[in-house]
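Changelog note: in this version the structure field was regenerated for every chain. One regenerated record is shown below for reference.
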Amino acid sequence: MEIKIKVEDLDFFYGAFQALKDINLDVYEKKVTALIGPSGCGKSTLIRIFNRMSDMVPGARLSGRIDFCGRDITDRRVDTVRLRREIGMVFQKPNPFPKTIFQNVAYGLEIQGCKNKDFIYGRVEEALKKAALWEDVKDRLHTSALGMSGGQQQRLCIARCLAVEPQVILFDEPCASLDPVSTARIEELITELKKNYTILIVTHNMQQASRVSNYTAFMYLGRIEEFGSTGQLFTVPKNKKTEAYLTGVFG
């Protein structure tokens, strides 16, 4: 299996507070890797470093290396605009722009300077189909995205991410604000998307991690305590802390 992202000896600080400690992690291409662990353990902090969202936090600093396609993305000379096209992100709460459905998906292409309307339309249609949303919205592309249901809005945000053709998609608790039916559709979508994309997902829902991921990392107090295939980690964890978390001793 090819390693898409390789994290080596990563430490991350918010001011004087060390949020991540000696992180080493291999993220495999076209697989789903889940990050699980109790609140405050560093899951969201780690995932946001992969597309440099962490740069936006005053006083944040890091050391170590994150190799992505042969380059260290922690290097300050990295073009973060390009990086965020290659490593897209879907957040906990759906965040559609106050624009039409079409404009939401086309947004990333337009800010890249694309002006070919036929190309943009084709890419929007393709992204909506990949996000399992085309049949729901094809007759109302020019109506406000804010009128969509929560589950549809989250799939729209996934389509917006897909339109600029990323290689990696980061999901930070993508189903936290959704009902069970919408959650199931997002999980089905993630399973379909991994055929073409490398996926990282942060989730508090251990059942969700077991359903959608190929690999799982258990994090605790800023460290990765255990990493392995999801089947192995959930059935025969090697680390006592992992076992305690999975059996509900703490969380």
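Spot check on this record: The longest strand covers residues 3-14. The chain has one domain: 3-97+166-246.
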